[in-house]
Amino acid sequence: AQRVTQPEKLLSVFKGAPVELKCNYSYSGSPELFWYVQYSRQRLQLLLRHISRESIKGFTADLNKGETSFHLKKPFAQEEDSAMYYCASGGGTGNAGNNRKLIWGLGTSLAVNP
Amino acid sequence: GAVVSQHPSWVICKSGTSVKIECRSLDFQATTMFWYRQFPKQSLMLMATSNEGSKATYEQGVEKDKFLINHASLTLSTLTVTSAHPEDSSFYICSAPGPGPLGLRAPLHFGNGTRLTVT
């Protein structure tokens, strides 16, 4: 069965420090990996997806198939980055994949201290 | 952009009563919606997948008779917590895959959540 592991429940860093939120997945096929973020008192929203290969709010995540990882990184953390981050995995692409559930990690709470 | 509206935002009910939570996709159609439960400062737990025009698919350990899901139209899914008890108090969230380009899984759009308190 698919599994997504976020080993850190809580990550605390100082402003300006680099941050890396870890995510490992298990999927034998071609995975689709996502990072979703939930800021305080806001709804969950997509942060980025591996297939887009883009940087959002300074965050990047590279899919490493050899290590089955999709760690989220930012070189200089900001206080406004404090939030709950969820890594999620889905198998299969295409519209049919839309109706298939994602497998969620347990989430990592990031606290960026001034 | 795609918006998912969830109602009510919060509800307090007495033990033994039932509560209905609505999830609407406002500007797109959703044949599938997902219902989650989120405990304070804890993870998101998928409860069930709501399928338009057919039965919902429940995750292991979720009582389908307790959490009734109806997805009668392409824009509305409802979750009814039947015979609620204090242990059902939680934050319930729905999501729906939004429109997206062919060949690419659409991102999920989430409702604002419903805080249920059972007294």
The helix-and-strand class of chain B reads mainly beta
Structural class of chain A: mainly beta
The main sheet of chain A comes to:
6 strands, mixed
Distance between termini of chain A? 41 Å
Helix content of chain B: under 10%
Most residues in contact: chain pair: A-B, 26 and 25 residues
Give a verbal description of the structure.
The complex is a heterodimer of chains A (114) and B (119). With 114 residues, chain A is mostly beta strands. Helices cover 4% and strands 43% of the residues of chain A. Chain A contains one helix and eleven strands; from the N terminus they run βββββββββαββ. Chain A has one helix at residues 95-98, and strands spanning 3-5, 10-14, 19-21, 24-26, 31-38, 45-49, 60-61, 72-74, 83-91, 103-104, 108-113. In chain A, strands 2, 5, 6, 9, 10 and 11 form a six-stranded mixed beta sheet that branches. Chain A has a three-stranded antiparallel beta sheet with strand order 3-8-7, with no helix packed on it. In chain A, strands 1-4 form a two-stranded antiparallel sheet. Chain A starts with a strand and ends with a strand. Chain B is mainly beta and 119 residues long. Chain B is built from no helices and eleven strands. Chain B has strands at residues 4-7, 10-13, 19-25, 32-38, 44-51, 57-58, 67-73, 76-81, 90-97, 108-110, 114-118. In chain B, a hairpin with a 5-residue loop joins β4 and β5 (44-51). Chain B is globular and about 45 Å long.
